[in-house]
Amino acid sequence: MKNRIIMFWAIVLIAIAAIFVIVTKPTKLGLDLAGGSRLVLEAQTTKAIPQITDEVMDTLQFSIENRVNKLGVSETIVQRVGDKRLLVEIPGETDLQKAKTYIGETAQLEFKKPGVGANGERIWLDADLTGRDLTKSTLTTDSAGQWIVSLEFNSEGAKKFAELTKNLVGQEMAIFFNGDLQSAPRVNEAIYGGKCVISGGGDSGFSQEEAQEMVNLLNAGALPVPAKIVEENTVGATLGADSIAKSKFAGMIGLGFVMLFMLFIYRAPGLIADIALILYSLMLFALFKAIPVTLTLAGIAGFILSIGMAVDANILIFERMKEELRAGRNLFTAINSGFDRAWTSILDSNMTTIIACLILYYFGSSIVRGFALTLAMGVIVSMFSAITITKNFMHIIFGAGELKYPALFGLKASEIGEVNKMANEITSRNIINIVKYKFVWLCVTAIILLPGILGLIYGGIKNHSPLKVGIDYTGGTILQYGVQEDVSNTALASLRSSLEKAGIENPVIQIIHANAESKDNNTSIKNIISIRTKFISEDTDTENKITDVILKNHPKSELMSVSSVGPTLGNELFKKSIMALAIAILGMVIYLTIRFKFTYALAAILGLVHDTLFVCGVFALLGIFFGVEVDSLFITAILTLIGFSINDTIVTFDRIRENLRYYSKKMSFGEIVNASVNQTLTRSINTSFSTLITLLALYFFGGVTTKDFVLAMIVGVIIGTWSSIFFCTVLVSIWEDKTPKAKPAV
Length: 746
Prior knowledge:
The protein has helices at 2-24, 31-34, 54-68, 96-103, 155-167, 208-220, 241-290, 297-326, 331-363, 366-398, 422-428, 438-463, 471-474, 489-501, 540-553, 571-595, 598-626, 632-663, 669-701, 707-736, and strands at 36-43, 77-81, 85-91, 109-116, 122-130, 134-141, 147-153, 174-177, 180-183, 195-199, 227-235, 476-483, 508-517, 524-533, 558-565. Helix content is 58%, strand content 15%.
């Protein structure tokens, strides 16, 4: 008891610390909620690259993405504008000078050899060795305590460096960074091994800040060409205060209904789970602030969604605990057994998700990395919350002894002790017969998938894309209108509504704070309204519609510029995201094969393919019949769906594995599968329902800009629940029940 009291006060202190962080540390908000800095970069040619091609611009966009999204949680936008420009928008940063340091303007590392100019003076010549040949750089100090930057070349760079130093023995070799000479050491001998150091120029050398900035920029990757900042402004939020208020309101409704649901279904344990849920939310939000994670409207939606999913571990524990109480166990034993028996399910389902998150973070693009980091944090905190907070609170409040009031645990008195043997329970509670009708379930699954598959095929043939994609994937057009007055959040919301009524699909609106002169130089432009929409090129009718709406809302405005903008997800980022997802799936297969069997792993992965295909099919049909587009949030929705679906499937597989250990000699494999599905059915329904509560609150009461994202999640949760029960377990029953007696899973 003493240890539990200590744990109780430790949890209280954690909660107080979390509240302190939340209150004292400002929340880092995204572009859609708070605006930030807007920089336009123009690629510059060099001797090595005399022409700016699409390939060069794709690489430049990818490099800038890596720099500004180092942790993968800053939600910075990087888009191509025209042939050789990039638009970079950094959320929450209104100091333009500081914003520039995120990018590092050129960040070019060059090694040069001495030469002789036309007038006999010494000049430095290119040596074909640059930052592109680096593997990594690190910050360290020399024997005198001066800060230096250690460099490590890749295999090709090591060969170049060895050849260069071999040819320069007895001469100086210059090291330039961003065009400035950093040092020119004398080469005494050829240097092999691909390592060297840079010391700062001048008597004082590098300061720690200068050296660290160089390390960060070099590790982010060398730019293929220099990038000059040609325009700099601060921008306002893309969403108005009304959308933010709606999301907060939706969050409160969703959280409130989840807590009421837990209280109604599980009574006293549900109340403890609600307290743990509040503590979970405090700790996770405090972590988001401490890192910090940039919260966009979609991020807030994801945070609210994670609260709904966090109850899953508690539901697992409480269902197992109710089984123990039905079997006549006392409270102390039931609480411990409930937690112990649920632990393997919680561990396997969450470890699979964490492994996928680690792989996605390491290999993924900025959007994928941000999702992976926040999801992994949520999973880890939820495990701590369920196993530590809920369990200790249960013991402290209920202690030990007999169950005197079954109603407090959602049980009837007649249920207690009615089942004394697990075998009797698992053979007498079959609500759904999975094995007997397995081919029926597969046929139903095929019928469910067919319309969506046809929609994907139709979209691919007619529109050259299975899904109707938005400007995040295709790029579009930016129209900028100068206005002489301030533009309020209410005015932005009204403008967005007017544009949509005029037939402009999903316009992205921002206010650029820039003091400028109008075209006739007679009036001053205080702000610029920037509108991003689909490509309109020669579509003057669409441009005229937008202009008419702007003039109606702001009579003294004028069109200042029209320019094409590339996708926020460049080719390199898209390819990297797909590769990361493929590797993550491979990681899940390996883990599930080790913990279960390959057939289980294959069934789980096919379940993910099934769920993803279904959601994509639904959105293909919505695109065909209702013009619904998918944007960058759709990737987040699919990744969240994968995490939810694999969790649900593994819980069922874990129960099959457990029952095989005890009853493989008494029951057929099919009977065990049937029993296991029915044992976990209540848990699956309750978890899905609690998640749907938050999603429905977000859909009906949240901001309009996240409706499609939330809709994808609603569809995903429903189909994920179906596949874990009627698809994945059916596949396992077919593959594993071919022999008279299946071997127990490892």
